[in-house]
């Protein structure tokens, strides 16, 4: 118990009521909704609350057995699960945590509960080795933006989330040290983690068939090489068009995106189409500096079709050998 503020800050427990948590969010965000800003927390269902806390670390402030505040902090979002986050690479960075559904009950605002919740989110981020903590909020929410600025957050991006009545800013607070006291690098648009996040955005855009957004990530003169077939796509429009006109029925799953020491990014994805499965390994080249928007400058991509191994490869012949059931997943 915090004796000065008279509330208890703790992780959400299985015994806590998600209906009560959802009602708290509704009450806290009602003034923003009344001002025409349709934040998710204005109207989200109990099922949405459960989904949002399931993928993050939810903190609650409690007083006399009643929930009076909450925040949910996340590590990097997964483009396979939170595809909506593809509008900004900041939420796909492996080294940046971010918080959402931050709320304090209207009747106890001004008592330091919000500051304690933010400090708890920041501590979680540091303890998990993140270099910064991010958030997004509405451009018209001037008071919120000013509060976050006073807490050390600066605007690093602006986005328009699907279905929202407003544009949003993404704000970032660098964390000087991790949970072990080790100095952390300050995230930037030109570092390896941002480049990897751009590639995650690319695959999420392609899976969503969001071709304008995918095109926006490419330099105009970007080139894509398929060495196995000897083909070259010689500009950004051709790269996007080949994705858009490919016969439908496919689904992409991002398996891995890793920045490389030479500045490139490696990605590995699986594509399922009907009964056929493909895998693609791509080596991405990125461009851009402090004065220019980072973008994808080119890539070399190798595709393979999943198929059963030949009969001669067996444990009897090779010793230390195992094969998965075929067809895959059978």
Automatic annotation (TrEMBL):
State the organism named in the record.
Answer: Pseudaquabacterium inlustre
Indicate the segments forming the N-acetyltransferase domain, all copies: 7-176
Q: Which UniProt keywords apply?
A: Acyltransferase, Transferase
Full protein name: GNAT family N-acetyltransferase
InterPro entries per the UniProt record, alphabetical: Acyl_CoA_acyltransferase, Bact_Acetyltransf, GNAT_dom, NTF2-like_dom_sf
- Keyword Transferase assigned to the entry: answer is yes
Has UniProt tagged this entry with the keyword Nucleus? Answer: no
Q: Which domain of life is it from?
A: Bacteria
